[in-house]
Amino acid sequence: SESRTAVLLEPFVHQVGGHMSMMKYDEHTICKPLVLQELSFYESLPLAMRQFTPQYKGIVSVHLKKDSLGNLTLLASPSLQTESCGRLDNAIGDSSVTLWHKCKWAASTGSEHTRVKWSHMQLTKTFKDSCPGKMLLRTDLQYRTDSLLEDANRNQPERNSYNPWGLHCHRQHLNRMSSKHNENKLHQFLLLENVVSKYNYPCILDLKMGTRQHGDDASEEKKARHIKKCEQSTSASLGVRICGMQVYQADTGHFLCKDKYYGRKLSPEGFRQTLRQFLCNGNHLRTDLLEPIILRLKALLSVIRKQSSYRFYSSSLLIIYDGQEHKENTAPLDNHLHFQKTNCTASNGTNHSRVDVRMIDFAHTTFKGSKGNHTTYDGPDHGYIFGLENLIKILQNISEGK
């Protein structure tokens, strides 16, 4: 029955970019609304690309639940066995479900900051109670109620104990679903590997790759809009732009966060400075990360060059590392040192830190044999290759101290 198998979908708090809500299914799995073109990509994924994409875990049916007060939750009917922490023995009575019924994401006269602050504290408490050791949010990070969105002076608050972008997307997604569909409608979601689950403090850079972002199926209006975004950002000049970022700052215990609106405004030099910022933990530049990131990007470049007919329009590339350094790589902390642009001093570690590079978001990816009526292209995706080559070059320059 539903009450024994339903899984409450939580907002994925480490979503740093995109507009579609990513949901946490269990500790090692996230889910997102199914798009046939993306499913087609995962089902026919070339073997060589599998190390650079999240593992595809199947499809799950999801439906919207609304209580008498209009509060919204998403419940999944799993086709997979999940950990006991992920299953709800009594969907309506479970404390975490009750919480999300109470957390009013629908339009409200209450303060958004108050609501987010309340939900953060309650989430930490209820998930600590129901899943010991597997909290949604870490309580050892100091909480800040700052919104990531710009204030009246067009400035972005930077330091947060979690990235609010995921909650922003989640709230919008629930409201869209509620306005378009009734409760009984089943929605299909993709189940994918949570590629940051192994990191204690996941530092994530979301890069929109390539010189073209619109898919073959885009309307003329959408096509013109995406072309303009590319021309006005580093997508045209570098073949890559920043779509979102979170970096753990060891000197403050906060995450430094940037969103896609920040990334769109960057000049090529601003892009380089932000890339350097992504590698700085508030005390020093993580030079120990540069070589493993560059090597992994070069390996990906080699694979992409061999993929004939593939066009990864509007896809992103994630660069991930753990903000918690190995002890032998940790420099003495100075609580009075704050990061400003490029004042991080270099710190050379003896061991390579764990890093990861993953391609995500394939809703507009096309290739020979993909579903739908799409143009068939010859050769590799040169726009994507252009972006990767520039990314590697910039990181090499940072490594050489340029």
Automatic annotation (TrEMBL):
UniProt superkingdom: Eukaryota
EC number: 2.7.-.-
ATP-binding as UniProt keyword: yes
GO CC annotation, single: nucleus
InterPro entries registered for this protein in UniProt: IPK, IPK_sf
Keywords: ATP-binding, Kinase, Nucleotide-binding, Transferase
Protein name: Kinase
Species the sequence originates in: Alca torda (Razorbill)
Gene coding for it: Ip6k3
